[in-house]
Amino acid sequence: MSLKVHRIVLLLLLVALPVSVPAEDGGMKATLDSLELGDGLFLLRSDSPIGNPSTVALRGDDGFLLVDPNLLLAAQPLKAFLRSAGDLPVRYIATTHFHGDHTEGLEVFPDAVSLAPVRQRERLATGQVVLGERPIEAAALPDLVFDQDVTLRFAGRTIDLLLPPNRSGHTDGDLFIYLREDRVLCAGDYVFFDKFPIVDLQNGGSLDGFLENLRWIVDRFPPDTRVVPGHGTFKPAEIRIATIAEVRAYAETLERTIDWIRGELERGVDLETLATRDDLPEPLPTMGARPRYLSAERWIRQVYRALAAENAG
Ligand SMILES: [Zn+2]
Questions:
Q1: CATH architecture of the domain formed by 23-244
Q2: Residue 203 half-sphere exposure, CB side, CA atoms within 13 Å?
Q3: How far is the CA of 170 from the centre of ligand 1 (A)?
Q4: What is the pLDDT of residues 217-268, one digit of tens each?
């Protein structure tokens, strides 16, 4: 088989069957599945004992652009995937926010030009990374930082790096990456399907900002936009992409649970009583029941504290 035919067969295989590349790292195993979203554009899902963050890889003529380079734990299967999908270097990396499950992999590709909002770099540099609780190595810190929207041309695409309208959302350094021609939006940790999100109140996030930015996604992008969640489904479920309609429904569901918690708070119910209730109304029990995400109790505690702080302010 010629090299070209070989490559085509390989790519067809990649499209047909998710590659599952196992890795062993400190006793923990991570695997990676892929889904082709467009020509040379892949959504990668790592599946490891500490979460399953998404990476998006876009192949250009001379290298890859990555969105969120994933956990260090996923480095080996990520590199194996890139080899199988073209064996080119990683040229650019954009990161949706500073949390370690989305940024640890910056250290795997220190030669890539990494792009991030100013505030996100500050968070990365000062060690407030969720996993590992250490700063990212200096050589891997973002190279190109900005405090406004930036548009990049790569692999024949127009790629918008967009700051959300409310800078205090999931964290205070969030970035949205939108591939205009493909209508693919990398939304980081804003969309969790039927699970509760984390709002990182300790690192500049806010509940109001989170909801405002979710609403902005719904209003700002075309209805047929494919929204890549920062964490997808778990195996054996298929990798899922959200529609704008699903993001709208998600925002409304979260708002319903927040309204209920607000009502209880205003009735004078204290946090401990509320968080430990075992007769919560739907959708709280269902959304909190899934593994490896926020429980209803943690969601209640997070929302209650945010609302109480708002009331106090
Ligand atoms: Zn996060």
A1: 4-Layer Sandwich (3.60)
A2: 22
A3: 7
A4: 999 999 999 999 998 777 778 889 999 999 999 999 999 999 999 999 999 9
